[in-house]
Amino acid sequence: MHVSHLQLRDFRNYREVDLELGPGAHLFVGANGQGKTNLVEAIGYLASLGSHRVSSDAALVRLGAESAIARGELSHGNRRLRIEVQIAKAGSNRAQVGGRAVRARELSRYITTVLFAPEDLALVRGEPAVRRSFLDRLLVTHSPRLGGVLSDYDRVLRQRNSLLRSARSQGRDDPRLHTLEVWDDRLVDLGTEIVAERLRLVSRLVPHLERGYARLVGADHAPGIQLRLSALGQSTSVGVGDEEPEDDDSELTGGEISFEELRARFVHRLAERRDAEIERGVSLVGPHRDDAVIMLNGLPARITASQGESWSLALALKLAAAELVRAESQTGDPVLILDDVFSELDADRRERLADAIGDFEQVLVTAAVLGDIPDSMHAQVTTIRGGTIVGDGA
C-alpha cells in the first residue's frame, strides 16, 4: 500500500497542497523551517491521529484558520481509496473513508506508517513512557481493538488514582475508599491483558530487531528486549510526580508467563503495595509502571551503549517495527517516513539504512541537503520553500 495523492488545506504553513506521489523513495528537500516535514507529518497523522512533533491538534491548523483538512488517496494493487480527516482547532475531528463518515480513530485501519526521526534515540536513552508508547502503538496497529482496551485502562487508572488521592488527604475513613476493590478488579483485568499482549509482541519483535541491527551495523551484538513488570516486582523509589520509577527492581522477563500466573501475581502485588499507594496517592502497579529494557550484549543499552550503538539500536527498533507490520498487516507494507534522519548518520550507516529500507513499497524522506541522501534514493525529489512546492525532479 502507498499514498498516491496528498491534498492539504490550512495544514501547518500550507494554505493548499495538491501533490502526486508514487511508490518507491520520494525525497522532500528544503532548508529548515520551510515546511518539508509538515507534508510527511500530515501523512503520519492520517494513520495515527497524532503528530511526532506536537501533542495538540491545534498546532496543526494554519494560523488564522479554524480547521485543517488532510486527504490522502491510497493505492493497494488496483484498488484506490480516499481517506480524509478534518482537524478542528477546538472540538472534535471528523473523518471520511471513501466519502463515508467514520469515526476518526478508524482511519488507522486503512493506512499504516512507521516513522523514523532523530527523537527516536529516546527509545534507547529516554524514559520508560517512550518505550511503552512505542509498543502500544504497534499493538494497536496489529489489533485496533486494543486501542479500546488501552483507553479503558487509562480511564480506570484515573479513577483509581482519584480515590487514592482522596484517601491520602481524607484518611482511610473516606467512605469512597470502599469502592477501590471494584477498580482493582478492572485494573487487573485490563492491565493483565495489556501486559500479556506486550509480552507476545516482544517475542515477535525481537527476531526482526536482531536482523535489523545486523543489517545496519554488520555485526551481532545480541540486541534484545526484556520487559520490566511492576506486577512481578516492586519499585524502590519514584521520580518526579510519583509517575516514573528512578531505580526499579521490578522483575525483568524475556520469557513466557501464563495469563493466569500473571493475573495472580498482579493481584498479589496490588495487595502488597496498598499501603504505599494510599500514602502516595498514586497507583504503583500496572502496565503504566512497566518498561521495555533494550539490551545489547546482555546489558541494558541505556546504561552501557555508546552514542553510535544507541543510534543503531533505535533505528533497528523502528526497522523491526516496519518488518513486523509488513509481516502481519493485511494492507501490506507500511509507508516508511524518515524525517531528517540521514543527516544524523555517517556515510556507511546512510548506505546501510538505504539498503535496509529499499524494498519497501513507499519511503518518504525529508532532508535539508540532498547530498545527505544516498544516490540510490534520488529518483523522486520535491523541493520545498516557504510552504510552497517549487520544484520536482532530481
Automatic annotation (TrEMBL):
ATP binds at residues 30-37. It comes from the Bacteria. Keywords: ATP-binding, Cytoplasm, DNA damage, DNA repair, DNA replication, DNA-binding, Nucleotide-binding, SOS response. Pfam families: SMC_N. GO terms for cellular component: cytoplasm. Residues 3-367 form the RecF/RecN/SMC N-terminal domain. NCBIfam families: recf. Belongs to the RecF family. This is DNA replication and repair protein RecF.
